[in-house]
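Risk mitigation, structural track. In case the binding assays with (5S)-5-amino-3-OXO-hexanoic acid fail to produce interpretable data, a predicted complex structure has been prepared as a fallback.
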Amino acid sequence: MQNDPLIITCAPVGAELTKKDLPNLPVTPDEIAKAASEAVRAGASIIHLHVRDEWGRPSQKPGIFQAVTAKIRECCDCIIQYSTGGAVGTALRDREAPLALKPDMGTLSMGSMNFGADIFENTTETIRHIAHSLKTHHVMPELEIFDWGMVDNMITFQKQPSFPEKFHINFVLGVPGGMSGEISNLIHLIERLPQEQTWSVSGIGRYQLPLTTVAIALGGHVRVGFEDNIYYHKNEPALSNAQFVERIVRISQELNRPPATVAQSKMILGIPQIAGAKNS
Ligand code: KMH
Ligand code: ZN
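Fallback model:
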């Protein structure tokens, strides 16, 4: 709804960047917890989490997710959403492993695509596996839609009784190889959703600011953070993840969409409100 509180997700790490790309990319558990708590203090209520191993490489090891989650929980209250996408090329069994820790939310990518020079593979079997894991562990899914055909996939899967009945959707627009971040693309995508379906948008790189602004005006929700964009303005690297959240909060206040609290976000998404019961 157009005046509902705005759910702001921050994706502070991602799996594709390194400190060489951005020296202030958080990669250690302490750095990730600090980035997450700054983002939450600025107005984010969901942290989309990727973690890194001791060498800073992307990892899906449950032990690392658990350690980083505990550190984030020490610093702030937020909804923690584990990535099951991992990095391009991560094996299926590794991708779904952290869901056994029963995070508040977990992602589910709805199809395969070129991802820059790589292939992000999500076969029907992969989607079925991860969907089953999310349902078995009672984790609220966020479906990641990178391209038009993934909406059709979602509609097909939704008819199957084994697929989770309730989920949030995040449109990730602007990945080279996926759907570009033109505003008209977002409009076409949301026209295919039922009125009551919650959705957010991630705009990659230069698409981030226009897409998130339009999403706020349209009654959707938004994701920002280094995973999607490292530039605050053209040729000006962002200082922190929180800097992106602060900008969104300023825009959302002008558009009469106050940032949602954690409790409000849980209510909007249908996540049980039992504080600290999950994965603390
Ligand atoms: N790293 C991308 C290949 C997710 O987190 O679920 C996939 C990704 C999606 O980031
Ligand atoms: Zn991700």
